[in-house]
From TrEMBL, chains A, B, C, D:
It comes from Mycolicibacterium flavescens (Mycobacterium flavescens). It comes from the Bacteria. This is L-rhamnose isomerase. Coiled coil: none annotated. GO terms for biological process: L-lyxose metabolic process; rhamnose catabolic process. Keywords: Isomerase, Manganese, Metal-binding. The lineage of its organism: Bacteria, Bacillati, Actinomycetota, Actinomycetes, Mycobacteriales. InterPro entries: L-rhamnose_isomerase, Rhamnose_iso-rel, Xyl_isomerase-like_sf, Xyl_isomerase-like_TIM-brl. The keyword Secreted does not apply. Residues 65-221 form the Xylose isomerase-like TIM barrel domain. GO terms for molecular function: L-rhamnose isomerase activity; metal ion binding.
């Protein structure tokens, strides 16, 4: 399982804050009031799993005066700061678009926000600037589809020229939401066309919840890796909409197939620059255990995917043995890898059962008691 | 167009408040701060269209001390108070369900809320209690599907026994959201099974945005009318999720087909008790014009549906003339009925172009100037 | 695992014939030319698995002169004849409908076909008459939705009155295909409304591939069992359309959840009258091994569903422990039950690895050599 | 309406043959038995509409000994031969793929078939070679997703090098069907990546029925035109699957929006090389009138799209007037353009009502009487 040692998952700082639906955001005891408390929670996930040494930030939610200090804070807790996620969807100016807006001043404001993010990256030591746009329209005619694309290309180019030689711009696509009629980066094809136009340090981010029903996501994984344009994952799972559930919860077999293609494409090789990030909302479930469960799910499905007998698979595929090939996949998926993973953890000084160990650790009770007062972190704060 | 005179549309009070997505709620000038201001806006829609004489309320958002006074206030403005919509999704107690909750105390609280709504109905003169439940679960295993149904049936029965002889309980179904894995009333079949078990005064509410992709909604309309169980519509339109867009905006031909089945089933007969309500969110578009456009869309598609030559259609259908039958439908849909509707309005002393007339009326400018301070109405207030 | 001993799966005779898409039907060596050869293959599946003692027939595809003789033939091979499936979709008369047709003569022809099926049931000892209708329309206006429902109800009633006291009419619903605009029995609600109107011996058939994207199928299972109206399953799996793939192949976790609800609703109790049938097409994979794999998948997911610690689950559910409840489900799903099932098979004198045993048995080679000439069975023959 | 004069639609020869679903292909009187009869029918559509001067061929279905003679035959009837459509899905060799097959011999056979198509193009004077691949897999593991892409790229390159300087290779994508788990060219992104790798004379074909639910097709139109890679349309409409219904039948507003983007992108300019083709199946409706209705639908929605006041639209868009912008679109869509089109036809010596004129022409009765005996054309012949 040496490949498994290469598996590193990036946690989103916002997963530790409150989240919800348009109908209601429930608050919970112990929710962080600051980025420092979020990082502390993220470091806890890593401490119990050994899988999550990186924390992604969201600007402006996680803006601090001194990012270099924040970086040291994180390092002291055993984690590093990762992807910087921009936000151009919560300001009134962005009601009708950000990088695609018809008003040059608004576009420039959005571009400037990304330049600020790039500055932050220098301080935090982050490699990736991730851009997810809420840009889109709700009604036919509201916007000029073509013109919006042209302005998007121009804005992205303006940002990209500030991306450093060791940095990357990662463009995320999303099938729908919050816009209803038209999303400006709705599919991997659009993201791919844009990042190809930008250059080698521009890549695509694949969020597993951002596709139409019936989409074969592992195909897109394989294709983008083949095209050398898969920059990162936003892992989560969903049943119908962008549910942002725990990765692997809705369809573990799909996660298995995705990780199989990641491995097939070299995504877990030592030389790989593929970032595996979570992007989830824990609306009704406990947040820290939710993150622990998530990274364990990724690890578990990775381990099962690694167990596929690829030599036998190739033979079956080339001989047209449909059932035989499928069975080789299923055998790996159905094999209970959990004892082996418990052993893997034990050998590395980690709790063999991270969920139980966290529950028994008293960490949750401590933060519930300590984090009184202040404003709990949530979307928009 | 005498049938057209029977068309009355109920406006939702909440359409005049701010709404949005989980990512952002934009506020707009002139937004009502109270139910009285919402009613004033709704009455304005009616004044310009002659189509919307009823305002639906949402409890607790629209709770007042004196509902009888509110009723008089509405009457003075030329509208009446309509459906009472309950709310069991914004209280922390309801995190894991309301009428379906495993905790009897929570269920009783939710039942009591509906009994309060029934009391309000007496004061407002409302006929319908509409129940939309956010109940559901996000993860497999989180709840016992079967047990939740049994508790739902029990809770509904407890409410139904308080429904007066001239009142109705209307149960709405919704395919998804806010719950992600399982919704307790996800489809018309479930709503139908429950209201059938309750009795004659229990009906189904069909929200046009609450179906899976590819669902033939007019079929459900026809079926529920055939079963005498279609109580009301929540009109809106959508592209993928429950977008709550202006009815007819996403697919006007679908609205035409729906209204054709409504007419086919007697829903616009004088004796019909079918309620036609809007349930929309105006996130980025102007609210009052958005409601005006909505009721005009319903009227226009109704008028086009009334123009179908049903005798010729029957002949074509019975002779297997697929293209001929389809063409009869399309001819009605493609005929520009707007001049006739302008004349219809003129004859009734209404502005022939309600959208233009409202824009020129100065109403919006007045409320923008007057409604300063206070808290704008929105979801949850 | 005593409950597991109650698991009996019904095989469809047509799974052993050639099948395909509208683009191409591939033929394969050894394909049966007669119902006797299909039964021989089905009996082989049972011999290797101990799970499939019943064979469903399709009329007219499987029509013989002497059904009593066919019954004895089956018995001699160790299987019995099961559900009789009617066919009203391959005759030119049915181009515009069968039980719903506007022409009374066509309706009567379709009714008479079902009466013939009921006569066959007497000879074969079958309990269930399964009705799947291809009825529907391709274009808006082509048919009168409401009138078609009324005629359907009338036709079903005419058939139902011939259903014997120990027989059942099972009505299958299907979301789409072959009709494109409107399907006359598109959802479980429609099937439920019809069978409820018919009487106690009318039930619903749930085909796992006949739902819109995002539909929670286990919810429908739970609901129909609660309403005592789930008559049978047509098991298969799908990615987007009605793919008729091997059950459990596309989403084994979904099959696990379905079987969990079947068990929860008493569907594997000794007293249960729920029929578990396969309805699949083996277009590119080997047919007999495809059926073996299918019944093993049902057994395996049933065994995993039986492993759920339901007492602990209830505690977690009632305490709002979302992650805990989910983990209990996942623990059962992730546990490798295959060794226990191999033992179960061994104890019953069955091959511990049925797939391997069949491959080594020489059966396929024998039928490949013997079944030369004649017309291979396929859709329509 | 000078732009409207540029509208030319290509008819598929196979639309005049019988087609159906996997369940049943209905035959109809007058169905062509040869490509000559198909062309005669296509020329008839053109004679009544003035819109369809080109006929696309399908090889091998339309293979003849002397394509030059066929070309003269078409010219004599007033039409030309257009796109050559290859077929690699009806030969047993292609069971597990054609251009993507693991077996080099099968790939070469498929490549050679395309080279034959290119030779035919020389004889027929066709510009476009259209490649739609049925390649894909039904089960996870059946094929190596990545390897299949690599082989596809290699095969396409082998074909492309034979594409003449005035010819084009047009690659069609399809979301699903006939393969169920994975389609080798499932989305526009994949087609775009491949044709970009090939060169300037490789383009994408957009079939309007080949997308996931909820996909905004006009966005893809706008994007591909922006990228200068939209080669052609396969027009049809659908409700859920690839229904191949008459274009505009399922959602005329969508067709309007698509044509709006075609115009916006210059697709109806004199210099445009965009091919507008139909790809439909007339399963239950009359074939020739079905094609007439189809081209009229395209013309009608094009005319409505041309009626959009684009200057006013831009003003509304740039001022954030969502409702105003939408209304400008809807005004054009709702305007009854049919009288103007009747006049347009009259001025050009065409029947003002092509559907009625065809019905009265006696053409159908003549071919019904004449085309007796022989084998009716259908899929596969």
């Amino acid at each position: 399982m040496t490949v498994l040692d290469n598996l590193q998952i990036e946690l989103p700082s916002w997963a530790f804050g409150n989240s919800g639906t348009r109908f209601k955001v429930f608050s919970t005891p112990g929710t962080p009031r600051s980025i420092e408390e979020k990082i502390a929670d993220a470091a806890t996930v890593h401490r119990f799993t050994g899988l999550a040494p990186v924390v992604a930030l969201h600007i402006p939610w996680d803006r601090v005066d001194d990012f270099a200090a924040l970086r040291r804070y994180a390092t002291d807790l055993g984690v590093t700061l990762g992807t910087i996620n921009s936000n151009t969807f919560q300001d009134d100016d962005y009601k009708f678009g950000s990088l695609t807006h018809t008003d040059k001043a608004v576009r420039q404001k959005a571009i400037d926000h990304h330049l600020e993010c790039i500055e932050i990256m220098a301080a935090t030591g982050s490699r990736d600037l991730k851009i997810w746009l809420a840009d889109g329209t709700n009604y036919p005619g509201q916007g000029d589809i073509r013109g919006r694309q042209d302005r998007l290309a121009e804005s992205l180019a303006a940002i990209y020229q500030h991306i450093g030689p060791d940095q990357r711009l990662v463009l995320e696509y999303k099938f729908f939401e919050p816009a209803t009629y038209m999303t400006d980066v709705p599919d991997w094809g659009t993201a791919y066309a844009h990042v190809t136009a930008l250059g080698d340090r521009a890549k695509v981010c694949l969020d597993t919840g951002h596709h139409a029903p019936g989409t074969n996501i592992e195909f897109i994984v394989a294709q983008l890796m083949r095209l050398a344009k898969l920059g990162s994952f936003d892992f989560n799972s969903r049943f119908y909409a962008d549910d942002d559930l725990i990765v692997g919860a809705a369809d573990p077999f799909q996660l298995f197939r995705i990780m199989f293609e990641v491995i097939r494409g070299g995504g877990l090789d030592k030389s790989s620059d593929l970032a595996l990030m979570l992007d989830q909302c824990h609306n009704v479930e406990a947040k820290i255990p939710g993150q622990i469960r998530s990274v364990l799910n990724v690890q578990e499905m990775t381990a099962r995917a690694l167990a596929v007998d690829t030599d036998a698979l190739t033979v079956a595929q080339e001989s047209g043995d449909v059932l035989g090939a499928n069975q080789i996949m299923m055998d790996a998926f159905y094999t209970d890898i959990r004892p082996a993973l418990a052993q893997w953890r034990g050998e590395r000084g980690l709790p063999t059962d991270p969920m139980a160990a966290f529950a028994e650790s008293g960490y949750q009770e401590t933060i519930n008691a300590e984090r009184i007062g202040g404003t709990q972190s949530s979307w928009g704060a």
